[in-house]
Amino acid sequence: MRPHLLNPLLSLLFAPLFLLPLAARAQSFRAHDEGRSRRGRFMDESRIGEPEKNEVITVGSKPKLDLDVNAYADLQFAYFNYGENQNRANGSQKDSRLVFDTTRLVLELEAGLPEYGIEAEFEVEFEHGGAGAALELEYEEFGEFDTDVEKAGEALVEELYLTKKLGRNLEISVGRFYVAVGTLFADYRPTDYLGTIRSEAETRIIPNTWNDMGMQLRLDIPWGLRLTGQVVNGLDSTGFNSNTWVATGLQQRFELVRASDLAAVLRADVKRFAGFIFGVSAYYGGTTRNRPKPDLVKQCDDANPNVVAPCGYVSAPLFVADAHLSVNRGGWRAHAMVMYGHLGNAAAVSARNARLSNLLNVLRTPVSDNALTAWGELGYNIAPALGLDGNHRLEPYVRVDYMDSQFRPRAELFDNPRFERTVYTVGTSYTLAGLAVIKLDFGQRRMGSSAFRPENSLRMSTGFVY
What distance in Å separates the CA atoms of residue 421 and residue 245, rounded to the nearest whole number? Predict the structure, then answer.
């Protein structure tokens, strides 16, 4: 690595020291108190429907609206010693490049009617500061895909839902929300994880902060078990490929999305033990009927030309299951997850995707029947040993990400070792009062064969959570 690039980046590791005078005036901060969950915000449930003391209720008056505004942001500065083209016989070429990224700015608004047990939540994410575009399917132009550039910057509505409390421990939500799979369902803010980026093992296999429209039920069992059940829109199998498996199957390319194939999600989290959360989740849903065109259909001799898919669709169900763990106790913080996925009729999906239009802008490489991924990170807060108070967390950490998007594929699909990747990361994270964070880490990615050149990266990130 070139010294003129390495030295300035390494010096950023000591940037937290310049924050110490400011931290002396910081007040203790708790990101989430015990009376409020990440996925809902209600006052004392036992008093729902009761007026406040000395409060006069006027017939026809508007109920009191409880508003809360939150935000978080993430900026990335990275150095890579390899080229962007990884599809080469010996892996990426040697290179020396810097990349700056305005990764995300997320604004959250929560509005609640405590006396009715109702809450609405809205979350919009601005990514990368890039230009946005939408695809339209124009049947007047022989069914071709037409690109319509209509936005100055890319903005995604990740959450927009209404929640109703049904008693003390049960609630129902309708709208757009996070799909209850993996660790990013709950731990997605920069202060929630130790690495400079979200787990590559998770975001390379399933959609990053997977969100979709549907209905959700959540039940809290008093002795420490939370059950989450969802019915959500399924994925679009035209986005499946060798490199990212089903991660790019989330329907975001069109103004309107198809919802002919739905999916069911069930998640169980044990929260009985202080500082420990562990559980499992499972996802099952179709992917065929959400394709932009009805092009993955069965063939038959007596097909009715006036009926779409007269002989039915080729089934391509997706199953994903994971086990996850989160630890935040004493000075220790850790996350871990293992996930397995299976796609039915992956060969038929791959054969049809190979003939997709170039204008759809998807990778047309074959998708594997199975995928396997696992990751874990562990850090320890050394701030007390340095004489810093509770407003400071200085956490050296290690992380390992493993992903194989072609895990035990069908016999006719070559098991390419390029798609089996392991990333080893060491770094340090500094958090001030739970609000501001700065991180620095070094990572090395290794492929499933020694024939591929290892890929090194040095990253720094900074962000805030409010």
Answer: 13
Contacts of 152 (CB under 8 A, 6+ apart): 131, 132
Which amino acid is residue 57, in one-letter code? I
pLDDT tens by residue, 329-342: 999 999 999 999 99
Whether 161 and 121 have beta carbons less than 8 Å apart is answered as yes
| CB distance 400 to 426 below 8 Å | no
Give the whole-angstrom CA distance, residue 160 versus residue 173: 10
Tokens of 187: 């731990």
Closest to 285 (Cα-Cα) out of 254, 309, 319: 319
Q: Cα 215 from chain centroid? A: 19
Reply yes or no on whether the pLDDT at 165 is more than 80: yes
Tokens coding 59: 């017939």
pTM of this structure: 0.82
Binning the chain into helix, strand and coil, the percentages to the nearest 5 are 10, 45, 45
Q: Of 183, 204, 197, which Cα lies nearest the Cα of 405?
A: 204
Which amino acid, residue 153?
A: G
Q: What are phi and psi of 115, to 5 degrees?
A: -70, -20
